[in-house]
Design brief:
By secondary structure, this protein is of the alpha+beta class. The protein is built from 2 helices and 3 strands.
Length: 58
């Protein structure tokens, strides 16, 4: 499996990036195209939640 095959995940259970088969999907966010995208999964989710919370206030 190559590093550019688009099968990167962020494991919520272990708090780390996984490539390919890993923890069950229920414990992961993704898939992402790159390791860097997977590493930023929690920050991306936080930003989206803030945006959606702001829209709820409108």
């Amino acid at each position: 499996m190559s590093d550019d095959d688009g099968d990167w995940w962020f494991c919520l259970r272990h708090g780390k990036v996984e490539h390919g088969a890993g923890c069950p999907d229920k414990d992961r966010m993704g898939p992402y195209r790159t390791e860097a995208e997977a590493a930023g999964a929690l920050e991306r989710a936080r930003q989206r939640n803030e945006t959606w919370d702001g829209q709820d206030d409108d």
